[in-house]
Amino acid sequence: MADLSLQPKSIDRIGSGIRITWQDGAISSYSGELLRDHCPCALCKETPGHPPPQGRPPGPVSVKSAQAMGWYALQLVFSDGHDTGIFTYELLRKLAAESK
Ligand SMILES: [Zn+2]
Fold this sequence. Notes:
The protein has two helices and six strands, in the order E-E-E-H-E-E-E-H. The chain is an alpha+beta fold. The protein has a single domain (4-98), classed as NE0471 N-terminal domain-like (2-Layer Sandwich), CATH 3.30.2020. The strands form two sheets. Strands 1-2-3 form a three-stranded antiparallel beta sheet. A three-stranded antiparallel beta sheet has the order 4-5-6. The model has no long low-confidence stretch (mean pLDDT 91). Zinc ion binds at residues 39, 41, 43-44, 54, 82, 84-85. The site of zinc ion has 8 residues, from loops.
């Protein structure tokens, strides 16, 4: 049986970011900056001694679109044009817990 805490019931755009209502009733909100800073793609990962090639630019960043990828993740497109970030629901749930 699927883990309800990792399945979104609805995903809404709010302000610069998104709000996810989960199947277990929890609600998590994320700003565009928070999501951009935690983008898990290879281009945003820091390697020792090198800044990430596509780290967050200065200034505000918002989520332009959020597209469900199967049942396990969301692909987010940011206002700075960055579109390679695949955020698994597991990661989003973890981010929500950490940013409380
Ligand atoms: Zn990225």
